[in-house]
Target: OmpR/PhoB-type domain-containing protein
Amino acid sequence: MLLFGPFRFDAERLVLYTGQSQQLLRPKVLQLLAYFLTHPNQVIKRETLLSALWQHGEYREAALTQSINELRQALGDNAQNPIYIRTLPQQGYQWICEVNAAKCAKKRAKQMGVAVSLAAVLLFAMANMDAIWPLSSNEQTQQKPALLILPLQNETGVEANAWWGYAIESELKVLLQNHYQLKPKSQAPELLELPKEQQPHTLALTLKPRQQRFILQISLNGRTTDVIVEQLGHNFSDIATRVLMALEVTSDHENKTAAPVKDLSDYYRGLQALNEYGPELAKSYFEAALVRVPEHLPSQLELAQVTWQQGDVAQAKARFDKITLGDAPDGLQARYHLYKGTFEKALGEFEAALNSAKLGLRAAQQSQQIELIASAYQLQADIYWHTLQWQDYTLAMNAAYALIGSRSFAYSEAQRSFYLANPPAAGPQEKNHLNLVQSKKVLSQAIDYYRQISANLELATSLFAYGQNYLVPVNEGEQSLLEALDIVADSGNEYVKVQVLTYLGFYYIQLHQGEKALYYLDQVKIHESFLPATEQLRLLKAMAWMDIGLVKNDQNALDNAKRQYHQLLEADYISPLTHANTQLMLAWIGLKQGELETAQTLTEQALLAYQRFKLADVAIYAEYTKMYIHLKRGQPERALALADSDNTEAHLMLFYTSAAAQMINNDALAAHSKAKLSALRNSDGLLQQLDEFTRLVGHTDKNIVDLLDAPYSVYCQSKWILE
Model:
């Protein structure tokens, strides 16, 4: 037993204890801890850890980073002030805690001999980890060849026959999951863009007519075979088994007593309708499936999901409550908890949603389905983001990234990048920018792919996320959003329709087109139980009226916006973040109306909230608003005290810094800030204002600060990179 700090580590069983409590960690994290304990005080390169613990896998680098983060979190360690694991930039990691001592100290282990003497035991345990503790799902699947099952190509000439592809694909997944690492179908756009040698095996299915019957043509790894299908009934399991026998994929085809065949054709028709047309058509099929097979859990679950998406909250709750999982398969249990957790999140019931997400993750890991595991982590990330738990948010998103790569950011991060209406987690601007670069590429691939296979709902989701990406040109992004709206408007998915309409409102607010924003926001019809979405809608409507008032100098519009903001502040439900955003919006109205004292008080209150919640990106708005107030009062020194010399991305902060420096004749600082500003895209207009400002400083009594753009000239920092 190794001792370090308050922890005990069982070297034979690879179990970590705090007191008498066992720390539940993934096997790979425990292997990482064991490696550190056998190499105390040594500088260990990332390449060394990857070679020792992650010989294979697509996302080795991300998996190592995630495991380091999980280990630090379990130990209560801090990367900036480490007690256990020190990060050495450009070098690697170092275990700095004394091992086999009662207390931990930041010095070399005095009992190196004891620790090293246990190295053989630890390394043996690591080598035989499978016998001690089953591998996590991601680690198990990495040992199997990867397989992507492509959507069935329906060449029968009858569109209605496409449902059969969903059925046969479902049966094939069950038969193949023990032999392959099944890649999610939604990952196909990325995987098929990889070089040929990096692509997974692909199983392609084509259904063709042949006289009075059908031929199912199957292609796997260059081998092609045909299976005769007498009729498209519900004998899916039998046909799937014949497919694998024909391909000689596995020899496990001994005859077993066949279970009674149930007619699930309506269920699979529902899945096809859900994917290609949306919930409105799918709902009738799932209801029909339950008439035929009332106990069919997948149909019950899908019906509960589409019910709340259509806005029937009470009925959806009743359907979820009615479902009894019993001994349902792990994958189905995972879907239940994830569906329910997503519903609870939409209602603003974040504690219940997080519990559902954790239950979903546990079941997903047991099922060994990568897509489900990643979805569980992404749901957790969404909840942590809403509850402002940034460290947990980062860990959850890193876990999703380790499983499915950049696609985990493509949808989640897109909606988090419109700042004041839906601000992102605090973090380096460069990281957000890189995520958007990769997401743009991934989403573009997805859009092309989903167009080809006529997966309309997934196409709409991809178009929606693509339109929210700030690296997409304005005209292209606008068309993407409007196309997404056209698709979801006819799908019956009212909740997604609300999301698209709401974002379109914010999109036009960014472009200072308040009337157009209200056109879309006024179309939003949402059940009052969806508290977060309702709150966001109220904020955006007030912002649209504020924009009209600011752009057109319309006092009635400003008064309307101010009244709506105050009503929002008095609402029974308002998140801390929306509360702070509303205060800042009211401060901007105060600036427009010349109420500097009120504007300053509200700005300071908003800034304190942003700082408390560690929202560095959003805090910039309040910081440069305070700078502007000081400039209006003729206090350039106080404005400069707020300047952040490290921030090279905030246009207005650099703009105000240069102006304040000119007012006190600090030519060097003025030139330096102006140079930084000129390096940013879309800064020409601000640079022209600075030139005019320079010409007038000291030569006129005119209030030259009126020449400068006010803080409300932009509602989103990312607006500056819109083209």
User: Anything to note?
Assistant: DSSP finds 33 helices and 13 strands in the chain. Residues 102-142, 251-258, 417-434, 719-723 have pLDDT under 50 and may be disordered.
